[in-house]
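ok new one. same drill as before - structure tokens go in, u give me an amino acid for every spot. 190 of them this time. try not to just spam alanines like last time pls lmao
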């Protein structure tokens, strides 16, 4: 299963790179958008190396603290680790995507806002799950198999409809997605 996910990620990367090469104007626009979001000092080789050198250890420490805190929270609330993972941890790890997408949206860069979310989710499903399963096979909670996979599928289908009708995501559609997530969290906590 892990190999299939990682092969899917490789295929997606090849497809995405070929698509970017075919649309050179879009790539230039993306680089300009990145320059607007990131300070110039972070785009230099030294800035990138410093960011990686500082960010990676902090990321590893933060991940450990997040997992430990989520486990303790689950025990304190009497909730399952799955419920805490699908809610608290999911929200916590999604805050960077939220920040980037909101900033991009405010700067009228919708391609960056939507691409950030879609790319992040594709990466999480294909690469993160693939590598994690490669390191240690993941037993799945029967509840995930029974309900959550259908919620994931329905969400993907709904988002596909929203993004292809009118070629924009309206405020009403955004509100519908938020209400759907609220209902999902409420169902998971009951």
């Amino acid at each position: 299963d892990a190999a299939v996910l990682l092969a899917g990620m490789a295929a997606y990367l090849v497809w995405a790179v070929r698509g970017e090469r075919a649309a050179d104007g879009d790539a230039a626009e993306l680089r300009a958008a990145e320059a607007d979001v990131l300070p110039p000092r972070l785009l230099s080789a030294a800035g990138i190396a410093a960011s990686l050198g500082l960010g990676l250890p902090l990321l590893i420490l933060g991940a450990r603290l997040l997992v430990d805190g989520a486990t303790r929270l689950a025990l304190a609330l009497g909730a399952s680790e799955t419920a805490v993972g699908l809610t608290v941890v999911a929200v916590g790890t999604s805050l960077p995507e939220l920040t980037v997408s909101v900033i991009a949206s405010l700067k009228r860069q919708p391609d960056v806002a939507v691409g950030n979310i879609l790319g992040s989710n594709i990466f999480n499903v294909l690469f993160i799950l693939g590598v994690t399963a490669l390191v240690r096979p993941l037993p799945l909670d029967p509840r995930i198999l029974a309900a959550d996979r259908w919620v994931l599928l329905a969400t993907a289908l709904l988002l596909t409809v929203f993004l292809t009708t009118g070629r924009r995501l309206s405020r009403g559609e955004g509100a519908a997605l938020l209400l759907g997530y609220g209902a999902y969290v409420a169902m998971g906590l009951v």
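The mean pLDDT is 81. and btw The two ends are 31 Å apart (CA to CA).
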